[in-house]
């Protein structure tokens, strides 16, 4: 039987390649956020092949696809061996760091059903996924300031914030925004003294830190650490869509296991938020981690770490730039001295073929540039530094980008809770961002837009960006498929 309702497979693939041409590159080490590149072509090829091989397998039922359960157990065991997990530990594979964090918060909440208004204590540097968990799961986020000099969690502030409603405290290894490792031992001691869970968010550092020397304690070797999240699609360099959540013992995991027989179909049984889930990312992670191996990951970790330190030294010696905090792992945050702005530097870097991620001001901290160093970036650090210095020089010549006073005044009068579609459309028009069909026309250079967002209070910035996402996520009338009259 032939299929002739649409274009050929070759034509569709050509369309996909054309669409992909506008994306950031995922390989080559020139995208310093969002993606992670080992630089190992054979590992990448293996991951893609395993992903395709198991794409149609369904992790919903481990008895139907026992290979997936075997691979999940193998990955959890491997991570446990690197994270000093004790006998009796348990874990699950999730779709990413956010899901792992959601599950950790859910398990903590479910263990304390008698707490009417459960809360969790977070350093202000904790990943926003915890705030998402708070919003989704009804666990109140109590956010405490970090040390203003080191940007690490302040154990005394955490201790002061803990009360009878606290079901979880959090530490980062390292924090995403600034790349520093929280004092996990001290934070975990606070939690243990009150009989409260302590989660270590090692989503970004969990596959790097075990291979580095002189790292302060942060694993299950620390008494009081009850769970750790580790992403494999970061520094395990596997295809996207796979993370791990490990618990000190299996009983701590029960709060996010779910079963329901109260309907006429199969008895639903899940260990994560997902029910149906492709076996592809799991199989790809299993294959890539086996292929690279412990010695391979050690080499990759040391390469990325050395690149981070080299880049930090070069950035600190560049007029107009400073390193916000000495990096503890493979993440780096840079700020300017006021002679230019990070938003213009980001635009200038993109024009030179490098993506760096601007971060908005937060409290007393100025806007920063976030850099995630992968192993594949290491050989190109001199080239990156040359581009960075050119970008900073161009930004200093241009001077800090200014927010239009009229537009700034309009924003100052906006109530984020009352920003309806009509008001948002008017704001887009005033900013010169209105596109056809009610959409958005983003400029090639984002510095003016980012500066405008940076000037907004956080709640207003959130409302504006939700509006942007809403407009970007609307069909434009060019859907990829035949119109009804053509079928």
From TrEMBL:
Protein keywords: Aminotransferase, Lyase, Pyridoxal phosphate, Transferase
GO molecular function: transaminase activity
Pfam families (alphabetical): Pyridoxal_deC
Keyword Membrane found: no
Keyword Transferase carried by entry: yes
Source superkingdom: Bacteria
Cofactor(s), names only, from the UniProt record: pyridoxal 5'-phosphate
Similarity remark: Belongs to the group II decarboxylase family. Sphingosine-1-phosphate lyase subfamily.
Entry protein name: Aspartate aminotransferase family protein
Species this chain originates from: Phycicoccus sonneratiae
Lineage, highest ranks first: Bacteria, Bacillati, Actinomycetota, Actinomycetes, Micrococcales
């Amino acid at each position: 039987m032939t299929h002739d309702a649409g274009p050929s497979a070759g034509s569709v693939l050509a369309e996909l390649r054309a669409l992909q041409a506008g994306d950031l590159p995922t390989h080559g080490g020139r995208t310093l956020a969002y993606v992670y590149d080992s630089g190992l072509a054979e590992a990448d090829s293996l991951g893609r092949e395993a992903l395709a091989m198991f794409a149609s397998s369904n992790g919903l039922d481990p008895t139907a696809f026992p290979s997936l359960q075997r691979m999940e157990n193998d990955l959890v065991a491997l991570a446990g061996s690197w994270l000093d997990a004790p006998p009796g530990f348990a874990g699950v594979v999730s779709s990413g760091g956010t899901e792992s964090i959601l599950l950790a918060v859910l398990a903590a909440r479910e263990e304390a059903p008698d707490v009417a208004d459960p809360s969790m204590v977070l350093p202000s540097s904790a990943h926003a996924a915890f705030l998402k968990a708070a919003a989704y799961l009804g666990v109140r986020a109590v956010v405490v300031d970090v040390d203003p000099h080191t940007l690490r969690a302040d154990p005394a502030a955490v201790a002061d914030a803990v009360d009878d409603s606290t079901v979880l405290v959090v530490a980062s290894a390292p924090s995403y925004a600034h790349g520093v490792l929280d004092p996990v031992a001290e934070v975990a001691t606070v939690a243990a003294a009150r009989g409260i869970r302590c989660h270590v968010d090692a989503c970004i550092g969990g596959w790097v830190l075990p291979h580095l020397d002189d790292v302060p304690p942060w694993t299950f070797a620390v008494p009081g650490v009850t769970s750790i999240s580790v992403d494999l699609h970061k520094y395990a360099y596997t295809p996207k869509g796979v993370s791990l959540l490990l618990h000190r013992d299996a009983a701590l995991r029960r709060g996010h296991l779910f079963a329901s027989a109260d309907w006429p179909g199969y008895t639903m049984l899940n260990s994560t938020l997902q029910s149906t889930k492709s076996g592809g990312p799991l199989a790809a992670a299993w294959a890539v981690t086996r292929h690279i191996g412990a010695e391979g990951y050690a080499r990759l970790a040391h390469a990325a770490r050395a690149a981070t330190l080299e880049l930090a030294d070069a950035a600190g010696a560049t007029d107009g730039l400073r390193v916000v905090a000495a990096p503890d792992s493979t993440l780096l945050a840079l700020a300017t001295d006021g002679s230019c702005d990070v938003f213009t530097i980001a635009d200038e870097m993109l024009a030179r073929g490098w993506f760096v991620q601007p971060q908005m001001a937060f409290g007393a901290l100025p806007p920063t540039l976030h850099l995630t160093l992968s192993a594949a970036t290491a050989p190109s650090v001199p080239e990156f530094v040359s581009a960075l210095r050119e970008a900073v020089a161009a930004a200093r010549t241009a001077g800090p980008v200014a927010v239009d006073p009229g537009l700034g005044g309009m924003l100052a009068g906006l109530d984020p809770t009352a920003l309806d579609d009509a008001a948002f459309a008017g704001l887009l028009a005033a900013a010169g961002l209105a596109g056809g069909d009610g959409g958005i026309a983003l400029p090639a250079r984002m510095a003016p837009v980012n500066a405008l967002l940076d000037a907004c209070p956080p709640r207003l910035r959130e409302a504006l960006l939700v509006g942007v996402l809403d407009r970007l996520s609307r069909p434009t009338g060019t859907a990829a498929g035949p119109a009804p009259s053509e079928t």
